Amino acid sequence: MTKGHPALLTDHYELTMVSAALKDGTADRRSVFEVFARRLPPGRRYGVVAGTGRLVDLIRSFRFDRDELDYLRSRDVVDAATAEWLANFRFGGDIEGYAEGELFFPGSPILTVSGTFVECVLLETLVLSVLNHDSAIAAAAARMVTAARGRGLIEMGSRRAHEEAAVAATRAAYLAGFTSTSNLAAGMRFGIPTAGTAAHAFTLLHDDEEAAFAAQVATLGRNTTLLVDTYDIAQGIRTAIKVAGPELRAIRIDSGDLSVLAQHSRELLDSLGATETKIIVSGDLDEYSIAALAAEPVDIYGAGTSVVTGSGAPTAGLVYKLVEVDGRPVVKRSEHKATIGGRKTAVRRHKPTGTAIEEIVVSQGTPDSRTGDRRLQIPYFVGGSPVDGLPSLADSREHLRQGLISIPWEGLKLSAGDPAVPVTVVPAS
Amino acid sequence: MTKGHPALLTDHYELTMVSAALKDGTADRRSVFEVFARRLPPGRRYGVVAGTGRLVDLIRSFRFDRDELDYLRSRDVVDAATAEWLANFRFGGDIEGYAEGELFFPGSPILTVSGTFVECVLLETLVLSVLNHDSAIAAAAARMVTAARGRGLIEMGSRRAHEEAAVAATRAAYLAGFTSTSNLAAGMRFGIPTAGTAAHAFTLLHDDEEAAFAAQVATLGRNTTLLVDTYDIAQGIRTAIKVAGPELRAIRIDSGDLSVLAQHSRELLDSLGATETKIIVSGDLDEYSIAALAAEPVDIYGAGTSVVTGSGAPTAGLVYKLVEVDGRPVVKRSEHKATIGGRKTAVRRHKPTGTAIEEIVVSQGTPDSRTGDRRLQIPYFVGGSPVDGLPSLADSREHLRQGLISIPWEGLKLSAGDPAVPVTVVPAS
């Protein structure tokens, strides 16, 4: 759990840089830092911006309290003058960036932080932690949503992730189109619908399956989901319908060959008159296994481990780089990373049909405007104050849904391939 | 950040099970839940128990406050009677388990929670979140420590992980033998040594590299690390020694072919008289790339992404299963998972030389005692109260170090293979 403010969720070197810059007079140089990805994770065709809403709240409360400053002094992380400066620290700069739920590609300037060097560099670790985590989850979740083809998706991976990361993962999965979650903290904090009925333990607790189902229906009613695979699945389904009647809302199957089991379960439910009873499947589902069940009579998928761990890509590979100092573009030269300095402005260009065809990113300038262009950056902080009327989580969810419709259809394939939309970065002229 | 107590970091279904069990009279059945892994992640030969220390603190404060109960009632997650019961909830059962830093293998009963069904089931999600995350990080980190062969290892991955998961990851990496971290919150909360000096941005901020190095040395002294790869590395090293003199503590290289660069840098430093100046390398290092640098003149490794994401295994695959009800072993039958019910007692058997050869896990009984056997379970909670004198983080770190010495040498190889120590699970007789 977080003790105190988020300011200490920060790398030691951010503070030593602040110390040194305060001492040598470079602290106030006007600086622009940019968050972008050099590449997408292997096989991925798009990234999804997520976490910005959480980040705004964290930056708002980013300050150092007395205990934290005492700790920093006691370990000699900073000198007394720097501790004094930190005691009064409030971010006073500007932040603009892609809307939460926006797609991004290699080179997209998804967040731009500008102000004095010291106020911008202090935010680096926190900005990257939040965006790298949440964006990784949202991108994996979006692929599962595409694979589910309109069927419901429950996020149930909390137990496979750090207890607080799980809450953020739930938020990112919901942003990406998941319909509900098992995580109650995410329900309370973010208003996400929660779902859940019983585990195998509940059946094992009872003298037999029928007693367990009866207890559940007595408390939750027939509009519930009975977990039928603790013992024999066919018998479990018969018992479920015997106890709850054909009005039972759903059964859940959590193990075995889900493809075969879904077919047999549907036939059995129909034969028992439970034609409206839904089938929920879970158990190590990822985007590929969800896609493989497309032809089966499944109504709702439950995904856990794969969504909260980013399905093979647990971090989004975003970096936070100084690109401009006092109006001069700067860039690290070693390794010929071919990064272009300077503050960037980004638009996405679309065909008249609405399909996105290119992202144009101009350093220290503005792209020529054409019909079908959309500006990708919105303001988040101006002069240290959060902008009013930022998009809600529901807005961001809809924004992503529209974004996924706008990219070329190959971009939605699960197979590996190039980024769905190419990015052209234009250097300062 | 955590709002309120950890109780809501919990799956919805834990509470509906509590509701239903309170109503049908099964709530107080004496239950035993067990945490174990069915298998290790692909390629791994051991797991490392981590997170238990954090978990004890979280269980201690596991209660529901008024806002949380109002939320649960407003969404009809629980009925009024259950909300009332939750308002008074304190865990009153017993917990025993493997010491933090203990090695584990498939089938090892790493945590056993016993008490009434409802008090035990409520802890499921939180127990698994903490242990799955922290154990995954510790296992990956332990392999890096082995690969580093006594050289220093700095954990610097905070920016690649959720901001709170990063703090827990740091703790797990330190437990596994990392020497320090970049994460200040982990330094403050857990007393872990922190380290850090400057990023490329600090060099780019200045008019030239010499000015940046001079500013850093003016603030941090010569006992610092200069990052020499912003522009040309050889020139960076010459400038570093020019500014700091041959007493400079260390240089850091964060990009390029680290093997070649370490050799060239050592030669250059020596030729400049800086024979004691250390070489720190970083940049997407994992256990394999660390091992590949064993012959190079590297003094300290910095690892980031790979450690905080578990190097390909971001979750430990631990499950929390009901194994006993009112003294009767229970087990889920579907899928023939071959799990054996009943409360387990575990010992690890050793040769006279001290090498571990087998783990014996007996259901509802105690293994025959032999010379060289070590009991693996220690008490954590008795009657709801945490046991005094639990191992410190330093104790756990030493415990793991000794544990890794005790397993057969093949178990420390990075290549894939069987678990280092076989586990024999003996059913109740």
From TrEMBL, chains A, B:
Protein modification: Transiently phosphorylated on a His residue during the reaction cycle. Phosphorylation strongly increases the affinity for substrates and increases the rate of nicotinate D-ribonucleotide production. Dephosphorylation regenerates the low-affinity form of the enzyme, leading to product release.
Function: Catalyzes the first step in the biosynthesis of NAD from nicotinic acid, the ATP-dependent synthesis of beta-nicotinate D-ribonucleotide from nicotinate and 5-phospho-D-ribose 1-phosphate.
The protein's name in its UniProt record: Nicotinate phosphoribosyltransferase
EC number in record: 6.3.4.21
Residue ranges occupied by any Nicotinate phosphoribosyltransferase N-terminal domain in the UniProt entry: 8-132
Keywords: Glycosyltransferase, Ligase, Phosphoprotein, Pyridine nucleotide biosynthesis, Transferase
Group of enzyme by EC: ligase
Biological or metabolic pathway of the protein: Cofactor biosynthesis; NAD(+) biosynthesis; nicotinate D-ribonucleotide from nicotinate: step 1/1
GO MF term set: glycosyltransferase activity
Organism per entry: Asanoa siamensis
Family named by the database record: Belongs to the NAPRTase family.
Reactions performed catalytically: 5-phospho-alpha-D-ribose 1-diphosphate + nicotinate + ATP + H2O = nicotinate beta-D-ribonucleotide + ADP + phosphate + diphosphate
